[in-house]
Automatic annotation (TrEMBL):
SUPFAM superfamilies: ATPase domain of HSP90 chaperone/DNA topoisomerase II/histidine kinase. It comes from Oryzias latipes (Japanese rice fish). This is Morc S5 domain-containing protein. One of its GO terms (molecular function) is ATP hydrolysis activity. Signal peptide: none annotated. InterPro entries: HATPase_C_sf, MORC_ATPase. PANTHER family: MORC FAMILY CW-TYPE ZINC FINGER PROTEIN 3, ZINC FINGER CW-TYPE COILED-COIL DOMAIN PROTEIN 3.
Length: 162
């Protein structure tokens, strides 16, 4: 195990297997879908529309979730793909549903083995990946989340591969 240390004290780490473990809290897929809808509704994103579709990419069935909310920059994408980071606050009486910093991870990994997040925000375009297939292929012993940001509008979407 690649243990990092902070002042000599080991950091707790997360095994890639936890992605599946964590998803099992959703006993049926509809609560997983609800996590993604809640995120688009919450005041930090405040989407007005939300689209769910299915498509085939290289003979793989994929689910797509798209909203027209505020999008993400590099820092918020990193938090989205990490665990336990949630700093949502009410805006003008719009009270957030999310509070644990876990719903995207548990929901997306319940619906698919791999998720790619495409986002456009004021600061630019950003792509992030939470992929069990990738982590298995590279033999990762911790959860690595590739993120590429280019730099400017307001759209977020997910593609989930199974
Ligand atoms: N569609 C989206 N557009 C922009 N940002 C998003 C979107 N979905 C999630 N996020 C960001 O990713 C973070 C993590 O989402 P996640 O659902 O894992 O946790 P949460 O909503 O904060 O809490 P909870 O676990 O209670 O759902 C959110 O706090 C939000 O900042
Ligand atoms: Mg959430």
């Amino acid at each position: 195990m690649a243990a990092q240390a902070s002042g000599g004290v080991p950091l707790s780490t997360l095994s890639p297997k936890y992605l599946h473990t964590n998803s099992t809290s959703h006993t049926w897929p509809f609560s997983a879908i609800a996590e993604l809808i809640d995120n688009a509704y919450d005041p930090d994103v405040s989407a007005k529309q939300f689209w769910i579709d299915k498509t085939m990419i290289k003979e793989k069935l994929c689910l797509t979730f798209m909203d027209n909310g505020n999008g993400l920059d590099h820092e918020t994408m990193h938090k989205m793909l990490s665990f336990g980071y949630s700093d949502k606050t009410a805006i003008k009486g719009h009270v957030p549903i999310g509070m644990y910093g876990n719903g995207f991870k548990s929901g997306s990994m319940r619906l698919g083995k791999d998720a790619i997040v495409f986002s456009r925000s004021k600061s630019g375009m950003c792509i992030g990946m939470l992929s069990q297939t990738y982590l298995e292929k590279i033999g990762a012993n911790q959860i690595q989340v590739p993120i590429v940001c280019i730099t400017e509008r307001n759209l977020s979407s997910y593609i989930l591969f199974n």
